[in-house]
Amino acid sequence: MIEISGTTRIFPVIGWPVEQVKAPALFNAYFQRHGIDARVVPLKVPPESYTAAVRMLMSFPNVGGIFVSIPHKPMSVSAVEQPSNRAVLAGACNAIYKDAEGMLLGDLIDGEGFIRAFDRTCAGKPLNWPAARALVVGSGGVGCAIAYALAERGIGQVAIYDTRTEQASALQARLQQAFPSVEFVIAPPAAAGFDVVVNSTPLGMHADDPLPIDLRGVSPGCVVADCGMKIEMTRLLRQAQEMGCRIQKGKEMLIEQAPLYLELFGWPGVSSDAFRALEAL
């Protein structure tokens, strides 16, 4: 039984929708296993109420931080007092917390979590980063974070696709200026010719969703990642696996960034293995 009292630190997960989030299951299992008086609670908040909700919640002494889910990550940059440099550049935050002086801070750790998970996925066959090409489909909060992280890691090219062409082009321009040695292009959602393919759109949250990426002509050496977590094996991942590709499930990104959340929220030094051992997802 999960006990909640007046001393419990609360960490909301805010999304619209919020039914797909997995952070409560993962972090509450960790808190319970280690006897930590803290709980993660999902809150369904519409976009028009988001900024006010963040500032109200973070004014409460027993709220320790906020996990940000779709579609609120881009709005989080202006909802906090001081976003991190990578959050500003990518245009999104997924973690909100306070510093020792009470200033409201925001960071973007999706990308770092993705890269850590990717390194595990490719442990037996590392990527030749300077020669590699990646396709990131979706330029919302997760897509921004992953495109940034891939560039920071030193990949040769990042191709971006989004049905919102102006948003994708704006991200391309920001990242190209920040990472001049990496080529950023706008491309269709077709996997052929890429070494890394990432779905960071909501497509795949439902079993009857259309495929977000055309896998025809994909190389068997390609790594196909889906950031969605509502369905563990999405149609995209199943098809990619059938075609001989290595795949990366969405839960891997959450597990690998879990220690990063804890560090921001006041519990440094935790390994992702501690979360993986819980088998909570």
Summed up:
45% of the residues are buried. Helices cover 36% and strands 19% of the residues.
Overview of this protein structure:
The chain has 281 residues and is α/β, with parallel strands linked by helices. It has two domains: 9-108 and 253-276, Leucine Dehydrogenase, chain A, domain 1 (Rossmann fold, 3-Layer(aba) Sandwich), CATH 3.40.50.10860; 111-248, Rossmann fold (3-Layer(aba) Sandwich). 36% of the residues lie in helices and 19% in strands. The protein is built from ten helices and twelve strands. The strands form two sheets. It has a six-stranded mixed β-sheet with strand order 2-1-3-5-6-4, sandwiched between helices. Strands 9-8-7-10-11-12 form a six-stranded parallel β-sheet, sandwiched between helices. Helix 2 (50-57) crosses helix 3. The longest helix has 16 residues, at 250-265. The mean pLDDT is 96.
Characteristics:
281 residues; globular; 10 helices; 19% strand; 12 strands; six-stranded parallel beta sheet
